Amino acid sequence: MKKGWDCAKQITFMFVLCLMLCACQTRGQEGVGEAVAEPENGRVSGFSEGEKTEDDSGFSEGEKAEENKGFAGKGEMGETPEEILAELCVDATHDAFLVETGGRMGTVLVTGEKQEGSTVGSFSVWDPRNMESPIQTMEIAFEYERFGEHLIVDANFDGLGDFAYLENVYGNSECWGFWFWNEETCQFENAYIGGTVFNPVFLEDCKMIACLSKEDGSGIFYSWGQDDRLSMNRSIEVTEENGKVKLMATVKLQEVPVDVFECQYAKDSGEWEEQWELWCDPGYYGKPGSMSERLHRQGIPEGTISAFVIRTGSDGREMLVTAQPCGADDVMDTTGAQCRYDGKAVRFSVWNPEDMSEPLQTVCKYVEEYHYREAGSYQHEMVDANFDGYMDFAWLCHSGNQPTFYYLWVWDEEVQKFVEEPAYNEISMPMADAEKKTITGRSRSSAAQDGRTTIHKWLDGELVCVREIEVWQEIDADDYTMTVKDRVDGGLVEVYRAEFPESREFGAEQGKWENPDYHGEP
Hints:
Elements: H1 2-20, H2 54-57, H3 61-69, H4 81-87, E1 94-100, E2 107-114, E3 120-126, E4 136-141, E5 150-153, E6 162-170, E7 173-182, E8 187-191, E9 200-203, E10 208-212, E11 219-224, E12 230-241, E13 244-253, E14 256-266, H5 271-279, H6 291-298, E15 306-311, E16 318-326, E17 345-351, E18 361-366, H7 369-373, E19 380-383, E20 392-398, E21 405-412, E22 417-420, E23 431-433, E24 438-444, E25 451-459, E26 462-472, E27 480-488, E28 491-500, H8 503-513
Parallel strand pairs: 14-15
Antiparallel strand pairs: 1-2, 2-3, 3-4, 5-6, 6-7, 7-8, 9-10, 10-11, 11-12, 12-13, 13-14, 15-16, 16-17, 17-18, 19-20, 20-21, 21-22, 23-24, 24-25, 25-26, 26-27, 27-28
């Protein structure tokens, strides 16, 4: 645990440092194994010499030869790598740096050049003892205008020096591409870890890379898999709303991401920072005896594709919900299910943390092919959908550009089980509002934001639509029509209709009617 705790302290220090110095940029950091900070959504493309054409990169073979000419012949008079480096041009479009590989090649020189306005840089790797020609050339794509930001670090913890190049910056998030030294070939190899990794902190003790948001502390902890690709080890999500901070922790158990912790805190209480620091420790899985700690010790049911711990019931006890593939024939009830029946189904099981011999309850539901194959933490939501103080859960079964539908199971305290609410499956993109005690659904028809909005409430234990707002444009017509229907005597009755010349005209009026207490101007 001590190594994990040292990592947590290092992460805490780096996160605070990032907040204080988020505008600072690191250039040419030397020293294999240093902790440095990196980014997200980058893209690295590596090509050996001859694989790219002039049209691909903007650098012809002749141009590359001309670029490299200035480096040829160095080292013949016994200059050291540092002396060779000092003679090279480093400016807005040229870069040069040394990498101590830690292998039989020792120190190598990397030079780079980027044409003005180009998004591709031409890089060469040189042996300082023989500068007649480079031992390797490659091209690196850029989406960021600044050139020359590099890091030198043992990013995959194999004891050999690697280098990284800044490719893009999104706000306070920096995105880097990485090249790893291969001791067998004595060349750098492209490692695609961009696109997922941002603002990294390299944790030598626990062989992990922590990527933390400089704004709120959310982040993902990665470790290297057998295929030399990064894999999520755990993640921490921090969100703030209405003066409260929600912290959710996800850890990987048996290669399955499991949401094991979720709790809300008053923003100024300091409690969420304490929990954040605990979950930043790669060796922490929750308090002794907690559901998350028990799952770490005993594992999760075989065949699970997604799982999460939910705290519900009057005693606040934790239960485990798992999703596993099952046959379509196991689905007993398909009434009103908003998804395409493509022969895929998922079995949802609820488990008692104190006795995992068999589930407390099981139900099978159809899901679409994509959500069957790509099941993960984003597929489910934990929410108090009926505003009774007990947590419920929903599962995504259909999605597209529009609309999006979920199944919902609400906790029934009387029977001590989760009970499905079919009406929820008819609401597109449901959003619960605890203050108004409403669930709003939206289904957009076009980029003009026309479409259908529904507002639902729980009446006598049933989820019913109390208002429907619809906006549309007739074919070959310029105006938009908006209608509002309210629930009257058990049915929806039109209470408002108007026409608007442009989409921006109906937006303000629609906003008024989205308040269920609004019933028109006096």
